[in-house]
Structures
1.
Amino acid sequence: MNLSVSTSHALYSTDEYLLPKVIGNGTTHVRKHWYDVHNVQGDGQQRSDNPVISGIKKGVKYSGSLLSIYNNFAVKILMFLVMCLIPPNALIAHGAFKDLVRLLSKDLADMLPGVHLVRQWLLAKHIKEKRYLRRELRDAKSKIHVSFDLWTSPNYYALCAIVVHYIDCNSKRQQRLLAIRPVYGEHSGVNIAQTILTVFSEFRIGCKIGYFVTDNAQNNDTAIDAVIHALYPAMLKPERDKRRLRCLGHVVNLCAQAFILGKNAEEDLLILETAHASGDIDKIAKYWSSVGALGRLHHLIRYIRMTPQRRQEFAACVSTLADELKFNMLEVSHVATMDDFRGSRGLRALPVLPRSLCITTLGL
């Protein structure tokens, strides 16, 4: 018997649903597979029709309720793929997912779209939501205030996230992620400003921009000044400076670093990051040994978390909720005096920290 093997999925997975199929005397299964899974027709052209429309053309009678379910199903699939960061080809084309849908409804399983169609849905949904957001921003009652930040993705793309804050036409406070755009070249203020201005132009909100909130980096100062100057050329420098607000969260973080690590916090953090990146455990231990009580707490936490046995032993010491409530009854109920220590109320006058605070501190 002449055997041919379809290996389109063999390079990517050894899952039982994605194993190569053995076909005898023909290529019918291969053509059906490429048509159903990859949306490629027999002539090699991409299939783009909706399976429901295709079924109607073939004379299939769908009830109104089933079409409604299909439309809702399509929306939920898009939300699931986006929120869970799942590539369409990893789910839609997977045999286990098809089996799950078929268990719920055979008709719905027959309506499952191909990967190419899901991509079309995602793009169409994005365009629709972008138009809706553009109208909402246009009708906003307040100025549109902006916060943005730069960060590096796990696959090392430099990205700029832009968020807008405003009061909508219904007098409700809104916060929307406007865009996440790649930043090419240096992270200079002018380069960042160009990225932000491009997004403002797409949403047509340049004339409604109010104040900016970002981290305290100098390139952010330059970027905000360049953006405001481009939007409001007649605005003087002192007025532009007033439009730049400081990020309270970043300020608190800097204060916490200075409190914990001292005035050279940035240099110390750079040392620790370099040591962690190179796996220099001795350098990390040497640093924490030089910072007093905080270093000893660090060593204690690291010692406990180093092995499963120590974690288990520590977890066994954690009190129950009932024990916690009894323990917390020892908190101070009034200002302690020397007479309290001499009398029967001495124990109740002692300040006691709840053990839950200790557990939280150790991060277990």
Note: The chain has 18 helices and seven strands.
2.
Amino acid sequence: MTSQDEKVGAGHVVPRIRPRWLAPLAILVPLAMVPACRRHDSPVGASDASTDQVQESDQAPTEEIWEAFYMQGTKIGYGHTTTRPAIRDGRELIQIRSTIHLAITRFGQRTEQDVSMELLETPDGEVLEFKTEVNFGPSPVIVTGRAGDAEMVITTQTQGRRETARIAWSSGVRGFRAIELQYTALAELCGLR
């Protein structure tokens, strides 16, 4: 057992999950399941996507994180996150991409799960749009969201269907880097940086 793990019950070890993964998953996944004021179903392929183009930076990521995931001492997967500057309509933004791959064998049966997340936010962490793709089986689930006019428009696609929901949204909602940005601001305020 490492210092990162917690002992639970009769000798079972549960790896501690870093809070950086809980925040985006806790925010983005439930958004697709929120009952909407207005919603409609349409076949996949019908598009109301924006034509705004994000220009990615050619430079190396400003932050790159590799993580290994373990369960009971056995490696079951990995995570990779990159943060890069991006530009849209002359506005400086931050683009974050994250992938998680898990491969677990239980009772002789191997299950693989892949989750990819993309987030576009302002330098101070305001969420502008996101995309999450979850592959647990034969049909992936893709959830996208775009903030605007005090609402987040969330589209969920799976098994050839598309469902759109609109929820109230504030520019104060922060994304992947929210905790790090708050700690950095607090450290600067206290003269620690």
Note: The chain has a mean pLDDT of 77.
3.
Amino acid sequence: MLPEEKARVKIDKQLTDSGWNIVSRDEYIPNLSLAVKEALMQGGKESDYLLFIDNKAIAVIEAKKEENFLGIDVAKQAENYAVTPENWYGTWFDNLIPLVYLANGKKILFKNMLTDPDGDYIELTEMHSPKKMLRLIGMKSEYGALPRIEEKGLRNCQYEAEVNFENSIRKGHKKALAVLATGSGKTYLACLAAYRQLNYTQTGRVLFLADRNNLARQAETEFKLFDRTEKQQPLNDLYTINRLTKPDKINSDIVISTIQKLFAVLTGQKIDDIDEDEEDEKSSLTLKTILILSIATSIDAFAVGISFAFLQVNILTAILLIGITTFVICFMGVFIGNRLGDLLGKYAEILGGGILILIGLKILIEHLFG
């Protein structure tokens, strides 16, 4: 590998670490924050890297091998590119690419041609991100500051969902639906999407809705502990995150709520924390309900017990076998029920009831005609 090629490998990493997607000029992807290699300039010349946000050139990078000290001749070459953009691609300012960088893989020098064209170059410790470059030129972008998503640390389904979501909103779609399997990390994906929208776009606040209070509590904890941020800070240190237990908490950066509580706040109804336990109780099985169900499902066990009284059976052994078998099958039923419940929703209860009716009919027919 030639010295300049080795330097390019390091520069590529510096760019990707700062959130840039690197492509060749034949692989241009609209609406992404891109670093285009060997981009065409006027006079048939090529810039080593030309950086685009919102399909407009924002920076030029002149790359050299490590041994090059990035002197005046390199600076003149880069600055000439900055003032001679092609007229067929967009620019943030007429006939000017505002930011200039000189890089050799070991050192990065920077100049803002917009605010200080005659000033000295500043040495950087890292390449500027899309968000930083927009700040340097005093511009805003709806989604242009969104950096590339690092796949490492994400499940494949989470990565694909976030990439597709951001591509969708860049195209102007205001609604998106992520469909992921149970246990695939949907709440974590919501944390990631919320952070990226709040930090890199003009999004002001995020609302996370849950259908039950226990899920809202879990979501609140996960949002607060989420730390896949620029400096690995917990999300709770960067934004105010609150469950909607009182009307004033609706002004938080991230609001987590049940639909009932949100409706109450929006319609001016009174809510307080005590109501949460009542809501959860209504949405779950009460002790009374469980007792009735246990009696109903134990009628057949009662009948079997009476039968044992007329047979030569070791009662202790029978009780142990029946108890263990019932426990295992009940546990399997709960596990399968959780899965089917997510897939079938309200129809899961209808399916379970139908199965019980069929079992009852089978027993009745056997006793009547067996």
Note: The radius of gyration is 31 Å.
